[in-house]
Amino acid sequence: MSPDVDPVESHPAMPAEADVVVIGGGIAGVSTAFFLRRKGLRVVLCEKGRIAGEQSSRNWGWCRAMGRDHREIPLIQESLRLWRRMDELTGGDTGFRACGILYLCETKAEMDRYEPWLEHSRLHQIGSRLIGADEVRALLPGLKRPVAGALYTASDGRAEPARAAPAIAAAFASAGGTVLTDCAVRGVETEGGRVSGVVTERGPIRARAAVLAGGAWSRLFCGNHGLDLPQLKVLGSVLRTAPIADGPDTSAAGSDFAFRRRADGGYNVAHGGLSTVDLVPDSFRLFRPFLPALRAERKGLKLRLSGRFLDEWRTPKRWALDAVSPFERARVLDPEPDGKLLDYAFAAFRASDAAFAGAREVRRWGGLIDVTPDAVPVISGVPSLSGFFVATGFSGHGFGIGPGAGRLMADIVAGDDPVVDPAPFRFERFSEGRPAVIDGGF
Question: Could you report the per-residue pLDDT of 191-200, keeping only the tens digit for each?
């Protein structure tokens, strides 16, 4: 069961042409479309299902700089600057609040493991710091579990996933952009080795550029054009509670649970230390590029074999642009959450704080996270196909980093000076013959 997401009205007419077509209506796609439109370009945003129907509405709702891979820090700092202004920029309600985030530590050894990351915080003036148990309890006054301290960043925040991308998409439409929902893009067309348009299920749109912001679908889309994008999927499982009186405003994560307060007074709850990975055919095809990540993150991954193996085995890898595509056969990825993982996390959540003891679950859901071998996104043009750009592989960081990623992608497409250095996010890094570098962010 998916979260309730604010609806976004689809444009009634099918445009014949645009300057840019953005493929995918998640947080990265709508942000890219929004900032391209602010540059005065004619932009069409195509979504095969509904805006924010997949992981962009199913994530925790955190917007954090703390613990980022050092390559992402300038981008998340730009994104947080945008989050603080997003309601003003869109005229909507994204729910952003600078509530602070805590990583709880049960032992001094856990605190010591965070110490090296503080150098990144000092270099970029993020303001993260290690705090003792007394300060933790001042932020979480009802905390019942023993703690040695925490890594804390007061400037980090939260937003409402079910509101944010729809608010940005609505602002894009109000500014003259075109939003098409239930409109899958089957592929791109080319002339003379460069993009000349896209083919949708409703017909073609001429355009000089196309941006793929397809989340978990991006590898499949690229593969149909002979482009090898190494990307796998991780299952995220989240539940929400009914409103809780007198609960803490600060977001926090421990080894077995994580939470953030919702605008409705309830909480989103997830497991703080484990993610579920379904083994699929691509798990074996991409074993070598993902091996460094598997070694680095093995304690945080719950591997399993499920029905998704056969589902992905049966999914066509190639299709003609005049034929029904896989994106039309499955409009919205709505995977079952990992029930055992959520049961464990919810029990730990309820036991962790006096305010949570009587918490009542309202709904739970799953979402598929797009992951790259180095856990850093692709925000880049594709050298072998001029006019084709990719923004994907956000590896569980996409909601918080989405506005900054959209602004950077818009700069790249428009040929403007990029807001941050785009080199770490280049598409071609995976074909350079070097093993993936795992930064050790968390």
Answer: 999 999 999 9
